[in-house]
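Entry 12.
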Amino acid sequence: MKGARPGTAARPPWRRAARAGAASGLLAVSLSLALQLLGLPGLLQAVGGGLVVLVPGPVFGTLIDALQERGRPLLVLGTALLLVVVAGAAAVLISRFRAPRWQVALLGAAGIWLLTLPLVVAAEGGLGTSATWATLVEWLVALLPPNLPQLARGRRAGSPRRDLLGAPLSRRSFLELVGGSLGVASLGYLGVRAIAAAPPAPASGSTLGRLPAPVTPAGDFYVVSKDLFGPPRISGSSWRLSVAGTRALSLSLAEISAMPQVEQFQTLECISNPVGGTLISNGSWRGVPLARLLELTGVPAGTDQLVFHCADGYTESLELAQGVHPGTLLALRLDGRPLPAEHGYPARILAPGLYGMKNPKWLTGIRFTKGSYAGYWEQQGWNPAALPRTFSRFDFPAANGQLSGGRRYLLSGVAYAGLRGISQVEVSVDGGRTWRRASLQPPLSPYCWTVWSLLWTPAPGLYQLTVRATDGSSRPQTTRATGSYPEGATGLQQLQVEVG
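Predicted 3D structure (tokens):
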């Protein structure tokens, strides 16, 4: 058949189109990944982040509980594969039109881009970002190359591109080679990220005879964000915070840093932290009391909620009473240094006694509203009150660990119940039949977790260790196991330990 290589059967037209379209899609994936690594929003972030918002809350909560730290990289990888499939399918459809295919491809890219814009809004918080136009460029890259007219029909003999074996390459074959190579490398990179992702280890480093560290080093502090490729890049010299009170303010980082500041110890826990999980850390923070800032700008009459806007499109709110709480800070420093980028540089809100979702990072604006306000995660059904469930965990020993009989060990860990505090921690080594009361270290502040410990000298055997806490209002930690959605996980952590 004309056009077929000797000794091979020609592929059906739709297969040739699908292959070229998929290669073009892989090229677009590579472009999007390159933009993200340069700190620019791209199609993977916009589509992936938008899909997160559109997924029903119960489904999303189940996926978070099941996938944990692998959730975000798997979402990016899935979004990349979806882009390749869409590009391949679009190429097949375009190949069936009688009109010039490059014109159809242009219209198709524009149409898909328009369908993508709601995802951009969901992921970025609006259309006024570079992601709006970056996604258009990437859809053009995904759909247009296989359908461009041949611009080099008049090439001289010997001028065609050639593969590694010296055989001539058509434009389509060249696209498949380049796009496929770059795309496969990009997908491989995303796959490695998914495989390597793991929940943070307990930062306390508890070992035999050693209590967990009461303060988590900044480098070990847990990180959770809606952003699939890390924090937004913000210049502290050009950043400004807008506060829309009765006297509107626009403050620079230098102006805020010059205000009187306080330092406090405070625990943050993610609402998706599983039973016994590590998405909880305790930090030494420094910042300006938010109440002081509200005094300067004035609070409009009738205000019920403070609404926060962030550089990555995230929004959140606090009740006015929570905003003026003496422990609520406009935080500027963690562990004695400016906030790390992943923790909200240059400024974030720090609200004691609430899950981490109520402590927005990369703050850019504060405004006031009457009535309730649904922030980013509340729009998916997560509980807007965000009051932490009573939590306790083992830092030592580890699950499925092996200990030596007759040796004395210090069982230890942390417990947390928000502003309710912890009044008691108990440990069982026989699956909950009997309980022993653990020793408690005084918390560093009313906003912190409590470190607990218990000496144990086991005989050889197999043990089922369980820990439970009682909060400051004498309410014991619930034994009923639930997932994190929509109010935070409940249940008791249990470990199986073999003593030899």
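Annotation: The chain has three domains: 13-150+161-196, 218-380, 391-499. Residues 153 and 245 are 65 Å apart (CA to CA).
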